[in-house]
UniProtKB/TrEMBL annotation:
This is ABC transporter ATP-binding protein. Gene3D superfamilies: P-loop containing nucleotide triphosphate hydrolases (3.40.50.300). It comes from the Bacteria. Pfam families: ABC_tran. Belongs to the ABC transporter superfamily. The lineage of its organism: Bacteria, Pseudomonadati, Pseudomonadota, Alphaproteobacteria, Hyphomicrobiales.
Length: 509
């Protein structure tokens, strides 16, 4: 078998934690090999070892049949490996071509030959169908174009094996399909792709071979055609998990949240929200879809009192909430799960009990006459640890001792039990394992059944499809359109996520 990469017995420990435990991975030349597993399964650690960003405690690496020590990314690049990270590493003030050749500039007579860099970029982009303007500055480009630039950076360094870590996390469905076509063209050209993903649909759509990791070990390596989605989930989690649309009865009540002509600015003082109108009723889940960076964060911050509005109106149960403090808005009945759990969601140095107490430190049964009853607080936190399956030793553990996914569960547990009848939930399952995602979805549906109004912001269309009664699509700070959650047309949503009204295409045809 002609192998591009062969890892044998790779083990990596971080203190008492074993991230990779004797992993064997053989990747054939000229295939798309997907690596899939829950958070903490060891996927990214393994790829960082392959690319020289980490060193294994045991095991060996062979590239093209040659065993070698890869002790830095420079060595990996020299051996034909390239890695596109989940978080892009571009310089916004530079042009596309300058970013691609940063650190390996083409020079002529001691000076950077920018004309040659532009031409080389154009040749690479045309060869692989990665359309870019070499002379355009990166600042202001879409995330889809930014990803093409990152891939072109790897290609410019003559990579023959490309590692992609969660490459579709910020892409529209159409951009994802374009990427898959590009990856297939790589393979047709004799290259090899290692594809890390959480998304089962993507793995089934694009891969040739799938390796499943669980708890730092290889559970299975099989041809994609020999697997089903259900079997993949079972291999990843160790049990059956359902992500089908959750059953529900129609139970919409009175309008809980009404937003009219809402405008707001971002941190750079640029307009981030543009005449946003929406309503959410009791017993209804309204989803907000869109590529990250199109106003969703600002919308959540304005509604929760963390950012001022420029203009417009937002009412919760008939009471104005714009220009109110977060505490005042919470007292009106809003519970908020922020998109960035580390910045807005928890105090990492405080205990789980202290984090659970936030927002109710003056309320019974946790406080009387201004004195906190820590026995009651710890008891309530123990119950939440059990109910939400938070992997912690006890309520006195500091939040920083938990994984990111378990910290997310702490935030969800606090907000879902805060007593508010309006839930503002931003990226509820970001960084959470597949098994926990199912439990979180079930909990959201329980909140809906109890009559709470829910505004759910998510970049995951399958999550919105499973949960939302209605889906609003945001692009460039505007609501582009709305679709029924039960009849979700992913192509139509994808067009709106890219700023295109599907009706315009229909009229044009």
């Amino acid at each position: 078998m002609d192998l591009a990469v062969d890892l044998s017995g790779i083990t990596k420990r971080f203190g008492a934690f074993t991230a990779n435990d004797g992993i064997d991975l053989a990747v054939r030349r000229g295939e798309i090999h997907a690596i899939i597993g829950e958070n903490g399964a060891g996927k990214t650690t393994l790829m960082n070892i392959l690319f020289g960003l980490l060193q294994p405690d045991a095991g060996s690496i062979s590239i093209g049949g040659k065993t070698m020590l890869i002790d830095s990314p420079a060595v990996a690049i020299n051996e034909g490996l390239g890695m596109v990270h989940q978080h892009f590493k571009l310089v916004p003030s530079l042009t596309v071509a300058d970013n691609i050749f940063l650190g390996m500039e083409i020079r002529r007579n001691g000076l950077i030959d920018r004309a040659a860099q532009v031409e080389r970029t154009r040749v690479l982009s045309e060869k692989f169908g990665l359309r870019v303007d070499p002379q355009e500055r990166v600042a202001g480009l879409s995330v889809g174009i930014e990803q093409r630039i990152e891939i072109l950076k790897v290609l410019a360094r003559n990579a023959r094996t490309i590692i992609l870590d969660e490459p579709t996390a910020v892409l529209t469905p159409q951009e994802s399909r374009d990427l898959f076509q590009t990856l297939r063209s790589f393979v047709d050209d004799g290259m090899t792709v290692i594809f890390i993903s959480h998304h089962l649909e993507e793995v089934m759509a694009v891969s040739d071979t799938v390796t499943v990791l669980r708890d730092g070990r290889v559970v299975a390596t099989k041809p994609k055609n020999a697997l089903t989605k259900r079997e993949l989930v079972r291999l990843m989690v160790g049990r059956d998990v359902s992500f089908d649309r959750r059953p529900r009865t129609r139970n919409e009540g009175a309008v809980a949240l009404e937003v009219t002509d809402l405008w707001a600015r971002d941190d750079r003082r640029l307009t981030a929200l543009k005449s946003v109108d929406l309503t959410v009723r009791a017993g209804e889940i309204v989803g907000i879809a869109g590529v990250a960076g199109n106003g969703q964060t600002e919308l959540a911050e304005v509604l929760s009192g963390l950012r001022p509005a420029s203009h417009g109106r937002a009412q919760l149960h008939g009471h104005d909430i714009l220009d109110r403090t977060p505490a005042e808005i919470r007292n009106r009945g809003l519970a908020h799960v922020p998109g960035d759990r580390m910045v807005r969601g928890v105090d990492r140095n405080a205990s789980l009990s202290a984090n659970m107490l936030m927002g109710r430190q003056n309320k019974e049964p946790f406080a009387r006459l201004g004195v906190i009853d820590w026995t009651a607080v710890h008891g309530a936190m123990r119950a939440l640890i059990q109910r939400f399956d938070i992997r912690a030793r006890g309520p006195k553990d500091p939040a920083r001792s938990l994984s990111g996914g378990n910290i997310q569960k702490v935030v969800l547990a606090r907000e879902f039990t805060a007593g508010g009848d309006m839930l503002l939930i931003d990226q509820p399952t970001r960084g959470v394992d597949i098994g926990a995602q199912e439990a979180i979805h079930d909990e959201i549906m329980r909140q809906r059944a109890d009559g709470r109004a829910i505004l759910l912001i998510s970049t995951q269309l399958d999550e919105l499809k499973a949960l939302a009664d209605r889906i609003l699509v945001m692009f460039d700070g505007r609501i582009m359109g709305a679709v029924d959650g039960a009849e979700m047309d992913e192509d139509a949503i994808g067009l709106m996520m890219a700023g295109i009204d599907p009706a315009d295409l229909t009229e044009a045809s």
